[in-house]
Amino acid sequence: MTVTATDRPAETRRVAAIVMVLSLAVFMSSLDTFIVNLAFPYIGREYAGTSLGTLSWVLNAYTIVLAAVLVPAGRWADRIGRRRVFAAGLGAFGVGSLLCGVAPDVKALIAARVLQALGGGMMVPASLSILLSTVPQEARVRAIGTWSAFGALGAALGPVIGGALVQVGWRWVFWVNLPVALGAVLLSARLVPESRDESDLGRPDVTGAGLLALSIGLLALALVEGPGWGWGSSRVVWILVAAVATGAAVTLRSGRHASPVLELPMLADRTFSGAVAASIFYYAAFGAWLLALVEFLTGVWHDSPVLAGLAIAPGPLMVLPFARVVAPRLSAALGGSGRVAAVGAAVNAVSCVVWLLHMRAHADYPVQLLPSQLIGGVGVGLAIPTLLGAGTAHLAPARFGTGSGILNMARQIGTVIGVAALIAVLADARAGDPIASFRHAALLSALLFGAAAISATALLVRRPASARPRFAPGTAGTR
Question: Is the dihedral of CA 53, 58, 61, 64 positive or negative?
């Protein structure tokens, strides 16, 4: 359809409304990865006698299932309809949130979190796929910046919102999703167009999808339980072996199947695989950094959940303006979003070093933590949307859902790695020095952010046109 000059403002408003609906979905999914951290003590008190190990599965079940579902759900969204999968994911997420809030015991709560994760795993790749297929090329960079900024904002605001809601009651940590999910379902039915890959008529590889979900789930399980079980324990080793074996089986099937769940040419694209690698490092750092802040504020400074949330809040406030305004302009000035992603990750590394140098056991927030938070928010606003923009630059339209699922899987696996590494670091606390382990945590995050910056520099910078892959012709200019 040709859009005339008269129709253009209406079309712009329609696209903006679609982007906002899609952004709300990723905000909810990211929020629920971190919002329960400050609710753990309150849940434990209500479910008296529940061990910390059992309680940890309220978080772990969500993390593992979400990571496992993302790629198959993205593949199915491309095939059966992106809006259909998006709406189904929103519905499952909303029902899961409702059931979390009425759970009579911890087992029911964990089961409801699994349903939540299934919904999140469907709606996140479908939402990005819809964005890529709906938003015009000239507005796509800004739209991706908005979508990814809301995702980062949800993760960063998790402790902030969670800290406030637990004062009312921990069940509101889950019920807060209900009006957002319902509104997003209604708006998507009215605003979001349906789209799918009409050229892929082969029978989907259901077995391959199941194996991929199992492989990612096993890897996440090993990373989540490694600090508690012991990294050299037979359970962790055998789970990792099984994860590698099932992953190898998926690769073999994907090379032979007519309609594979994972398209190998996509991973052969240097820009796409570079974005995956950089995202794993970046989100490992981000997950460790955010959880370390929460633990430091509540465990060393003994802040209440509300105060801890307020202390973290300045960082998230920096994300949206830098993601939506500064990052696109800087990308144009530097000649590529890969360079901006590297700059953002480096800025995050600097923020961790600033915190490390000023960290003290006695609270002096304006001097010790506020500068690091502001610098870190700038880094998040620069890095996250440009990593995503670079990763989607060479995706063919028919593979938007699959590519989105892989990129979001990388984010989730990175977060699991970072949190597992942080738990191992914090477990090595020294008697008489309450912040020694947190110094190590800040150093860990700085190193991981640095690795993300190096990956982005090495793999995502602009190359000569003749050297660029041909996975999706005509999209190189978006990078």
Answer: negative
**Which positions ≥6 away from 327 have C-beta within 8 Å?**
145, 337, 340, 344, 381, 382, 385, 386
For 90-104, b where at least 16 C-beta lie within 10 A, e where not — what string? bbbbbbbbbbbbebe
Residue 228, classified by CB atoms within 10 Å of its CB into exposed (0-12), middle (13-18) or buried (19+), is: middle
How many Å is the Cα radius of gyration of the chain? 21
What are the residue ranges of helices labelled H in 81-205?
A: 82-101, 106-134, 140-165, 172-175, 177-191
d(CA 395, CA 337) in angstroms, rounded, equals 15
**Domain annotation for the chain: domains and CATH numbers:** 12-194+261-464 (1.20.1250.20), 206-260 (no CATH)
- Judging by beta carbons within 10 Å of its beta carbon (0-12, 13-18, 19+), is residue 199 exposed, middle or buried? exposed
- Per-residue pLDDT, averaged over 191-214, amounts to 77
Give residue for tokens 């960063």: 156
Residue 158 corresponds to which amino acid? G
For 303-341, the DSSP string reads: --HHHHHHHHTHHHHHHHHIIIIIHHHHHHHHT-HHHHH
pTM of the full structure: 0.83
Which is more confidently placed, 10 or 110?
A: 110
H-helix segments, 35-105: 40-46, 52-55, 57-80, 82-101
Residue 224 has pLDDT above 60, yes or no: yes
Are residues 42 and 170 in contact, defined by beta-carbon separation less than 8 angstroms? Answer: yes
